[in-house]
Amino acid sequence: MSENSDQVICIHPVLETRGMVKEDGDSVYHISLKDCLACSGCAITEDEITLLSKQDPTIIFRELENRPGFNVVVSTMAISNLAAAKDWTAQEAYSSIHDFFMKKGASNVIHDGYIQVVWRQLLLDCFKQQADRPFIIPRCAGSIVYFERKTQYAKNLAQIKPFPQVYAHYIKKCCNNPNYLINLASCYDRKLEASRYPEEIDAVLTISEISGLLEKKEGMDLSFPIINDVEALLRAMNPNDKLETKTRRGIIEYTCGNLKGALVSGATANTILVKMLEQGSCPYDIIESNYCPFGCEAGGGLIRGESAARRKTMVAKTVQIHNSVIDNHIMTNTFVSTVANQICLEELRAEYKSIEIKQEEKEKSLDW
User: In order of start, what are the domains of the chain with their CATH numbers?
Assistant: First the structure.
């Protein structure tokens, strides 16, 4: 892919069932970024599509020419996915991304693993303060949109900004560094998220949009936290208890001490969760909600195989590479401690609430 191209391979499951993407990968349906964002997954409106047009890669690269000293925060999943696609190590993938942006004039390139750890510490504080249960951690903008626009349970979402915005707050406010900030993400939904908080993340690129521009480099040191938010919180609150896991109706359930948690991924699993809430039968204290069927490791902005089988293999390989650099002691990292000591939950509060959509708005919006 070149900087002048905004074409991506559509991986929407609906298209697969319509036969537009064949199992053997011989038939690939190419769509533009606007088409992808307008498809049913994000349930976004025409006004939001207009906002998202500013996130086109060509426009962002042009903007960087006038923004020397810009900052970049890179998704750990994007790093792992690049490594999986290129048969590199995670260290080599990170070095490649780092070198690419530094040559374009960046002053600072950092992966978001450290920020995820800080975010989880803030989530713990939020969990203790927030009354509505279950406590739902929206891992992506897709989950936030789903709960705000389709259910009355948006009040259960963790009322805190996403972790890329946590980093933006730290570097722009705490470090007094207001320079242009790019998030290299695993999902197009982060573009929608950036438009919601325009004072923090200035632009979002996905790894699939720049992968063709990256060259292999000698590896840099790397440490990631575990992928799962709900597991991390349960272990933090009950460090001496065994974590038990089972799967029910497509939802991964966790029991640790006196707390019960769940990992809910995909539209179907989230619908089941809402039905539990409506029936008053939801047994969970903490829930991580992803709108992608396999979570961030299958984000729409990742580099994907051109068939269902290849995509499944790519997801597994991405997770394997991510897990290969997990450091259970990352919480003691000096940078993590520095960030945690300089920010506070109250400055990062978000307000998520159910939205009544007018009929004419519904007609302009596509849903799953």
Answer: 7-130+162-222+301-364 (3.40.50)
